[in-house]
Amino acid sequence: MKNINLVLKVDCLYNKQRLDVFLTKKILQFSRTEIKNFILCNKVIINNNIINIPKKKFL
Predict the structure, then answer these.
(1) What is the domain extent for residue 28?
(2) In this structure, is residue 58 part of a structural domain?
(3) Vertex 6, ends 44 and 16: CA angle to 5°?
(4) How far is CA 46 from CA 12, 20, 49, in A?
(5) For the residues of 17-38, what is the DSSP string, one character each?
(6) pLDDT number for residue 39
(7) How many CB atoms lie within 10 A of CB 39?
(8) DSSP single-letter state for residue 9
(9) How many C-beta atoms lie closer than 10 Å to residue 43's C-beta?
């Protein structure tokens, strides 16, 4: 599978929203299940930290 790098800014409207839900709304070419799998496989990085908990909320 080809690597895709995306940079997204999080607006305050998405404050306290689940990571998997936010990414699903922003990245339309992947399903929520696919995004959840990316997160669980350590493929999501926020502020140089690997996030592997789909239900993690933005603060």
Answers:
(1) 12-51
(2) no
(3) 55
(4) 16, 13, 5
(5) -BHHHHHHHH-TTS-HHHHHHH
(6) 94
(7) 20
(8) P
(9) 15
Decide if 26 is inside a domain: yes
d(CA 20, CA 53): 9
Q: pLDDT, tens digit, for every residue of 4-59?
A: 788 888 777 777 889 999 999 999 999 999 999 999 999 998 888 899 999 988 66
In the structure encoding, which two tokens stand for residue 18, read together?
């689940």
Six-digit token string for 5: 């790098």
What type of residue sits at position 19? L
Is 35 part of a structural domain of the chain?
yes
Q: How many CB atoms lie within 10 A of CB 35?
A: 22
